[in-house]
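note to self — DONT lose this again. spent like an hour looking for the file last time. sequence + predicted structure for the chain T wanted, 336 res
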Amino acid sequence: MELFLFAAVVVFAGSFAFINGFHDVSNAVATAVRTRALTPSIAVVLVAFFNFAGAMISTGLALLVSEAWIGLPEGPEGLGILIAGLLSACGWGIYTWWRRMPSSSTHALVGGLVGSGAASAFLGGHNIIAGENFIGTQIVLPLLLSPVIAFAISYVVVFPLTWISRYTVPKRANENNRMLQSILAGAFALGHGLQDGQRTMAVLLLALVAAGLDTGDRMPLWVQLFAATLLAAGSLFGGWRLSHTLGYRLVRMDPLRGAVAQGVSSAMLFFGAIALHIPLSSTHTMTSAILGAGANQRFDAVRWRVANRVFLTWVLTAVATAIMGAVFYLALDPLL
C-alpha cells in the first residue's frame, strides 16, 4: 500500500513540475517575445535549458523547505497528505492557465499542503506543525513583500537607465536592450529553475521519508534529475495563454522596460535562493516588475482592471488550494 501511494506521489509531483514549467514559462518569455528580442521558439528552448540547469545547481532550498514540516506522519497518512496537496496545486495551475491568469505555483502547493494537513488533523491524525519561520518565509513574505519590492525597484531603475540612454539613437538603444533581454531571459529561467524546481524536490523528499525509504538528510540525485527534467519538459510545452496576459494585456512594454523587469525579477530570485534562503514566487516578482516598469511611463499606462484581476487571483490562490487540499484529503482518507 505504501509503495503504491509513494508511486502516486511521484506521478503527481512530476505532473506538478510539468504544469509549473508550462505555466511559468510565460514569466520568462513574455516581455522578450513582446518586444521581439526573441522568437517564441528560441525563447522556449532557452527557458527549458536554463530551467533544467537551475534545478540542478542546488538542493539547499529544497532541504530547508522539507525540514520546515514538523510532524508529517509516516506511512499512508503522510503520503495521502502529499497527494491531496499536489492534486490541489495541479488543479489550480490548470485552472489559472485556462483563465490566462498568472498565479504562484509555490503558494498553490503550500496552500494545498496546509489544507490537506489541516484535514488530517481534523480527522484525528497527527498534528502537522510548520516550522516557526515556515509561514513567514513561505507565504507572508513572498505574498506581501516581494511584489511591492519588485514594483518599486523596477519603477525607480527605469529613471537612470532612461537618462543614460537619452542621447542614444532610439533604434540602436532598442537593439541593445533587446540583446540584453535575450541574456536576462536565460537568467530569469535559471532563477526560476533554482527556485521552483526545488518545490518538487522537497515534496519527493518528504514522500521518501514518509514511505520509510530515506532519512531525508540529503537529496537523492534521481529526485533532482526527475524534477529538473519535468520542469524543462513543461517549459518546452509552452504556456502562451499566460504570455499574452503578461506581455500584451497588462501594459505596453518597450525593450528598455522589458529588460528592467527581467533584470529586477531575476536578481530577486537569485538573492532569495542564495543569500536569504527563502522561496520567492517567480510569477509575483515578474508580474510586479512588469507593472512597475510600465507604470514608469505614466501610471495610467497600466491596465489596472486586468492587474486587479491578477491581484485577486494571487489572494485566492492559497485559500482556494487549501480548501481543495482539504477536500481531496477527506476523499482519500477512506482509502488510507
